[in-house]
Amino acid sequence: MTKLLSINNLRKIYHTHDTEIVAIDDVSFSISKGEFISIVGPSGCGKSTILSILSNLIPSSGGEISLKDSSLAYMLQEDCLLPFRTILDNCLIGLEVTGNLNKESKNYVINLLKTYGLGDFMYKYPNNLSGGMRQRCALIRTLATKPDILLLDEAMSALDYQSRLAISDDIYKIIKNEGKTVIMVTHDIAEAISMSDRIIVLTKRPSKVKKIYEVKFENKSTPINNRKAKEFSIYYDKIWRDLDVHI
Ligand code: ADP
Ligand code: MG
């Protein structure tokens, strides 16, 4: 399979006025086209930092990143929809700021909105949408610039448990349908197992890669159904132990 992205010996040190924080000690992994990988690890271990470095928001302190002719787009936990813009106009922001808004790109977004159940809401405002619809809208806004790789940072964690399950299914179907490659950061082990092809487990800060799991189900299905698979709890127990959560 074509490797889209490789990260080797990534390191990040944050310098504050009086101290240094080694957030990432040594992290390496790669991702192939069409793959869905999750990065799980304890809170504060540097998951968001990895995505921020990948999307060039902050510099690394060492290591190499090789990105083969691929573009990235970042989807955050908060949907960040602007209340004074219509759903369509919210989804067009990325195209506007990159100077890529034209008839064709606009039609592409309109089609995405129609395909994924937001056609009737295009000219409405975000406050008319449920939490799940807002999240779907945020995903379409992320897809608008046709990125090869999507970076999802705890994208579902602001929602309640029931909605989260439904939205994971929803988002997963859209991503697969559109043939996207995904790196998802989450602290939710179940979410990672139910959605991913591979899971990278990080240690606590300063983080290193502790384990990498290939997630294999005899009958791989949608995230909600994968949660009922017999292999699910085996992965869950292993990763739970890796994270070594002390209460
Ligand atoms: P995670 O997403 O896994 O919860 P983060 O990547 O947000 O973790 O943060 C990793 C560590 O780096 C944390 O200990 C955090 O306090 C620290 N950190 C994050 N951003 C900064 C910053 N801008 N300046 C200093 N320390 C930071
Ligand atoms: Mg984070």
What does this structure look like?
With 247 residues, the protein is α/β, with parallel strands linked by helices. The chain has helices spanning 47-54, 87-91, 93-97, 103-115, 131-143, 161-177, 189-195, 223-226, 232-243; strands at residues 3-15, 20-32, 36-40, 62-67, 72-75, 149-153, 181-186, 198-202, 207-214. Strands 4-1-2-9-8-3-7-6-5 form a 9-stranded mixed beta sheet, with helices on both faces. Helix 5 (131-143) runs parallel beside helix 6 (161-177) and helix 7 (189-195) packs across helix 9 (232-243). The mean pLDDT is 92. Adenosine-5'-diphosphate binds at residues 14, 16, 21, 23, 41, 43-49, 205.
Low-confidence stretches: none
Bound molecules: adenosine-5'-diphosphate, magnesium ion
Straight-line N-to-C gap: 41 Å
How would you sum up the global shape? globular
Write the layout of secondary structure elements.
Elements: E1 3-15, E2 20-32, E3 36-40, H1 47-54, E4 62-67, E5 72-75, H2 87-91, H3 93-97, H4 103-115, H5 131-143, E6 149-153, H6 161-177, E7 181-186, H7 189-195, E8 198-202, E9 207-214, H8 223-226, H9 232-243
The site of magnesium ion has 2 residues, from helix 1.
Short description:
The protein is an alpha/beta fold and 247 residues long.
Task: Give the key terms.
247 residues, alpha/beta, nine-stranded mixed beta sheet, 9 strands, globular, binds adenosine-5'-diphosphate, binds magnesium ion
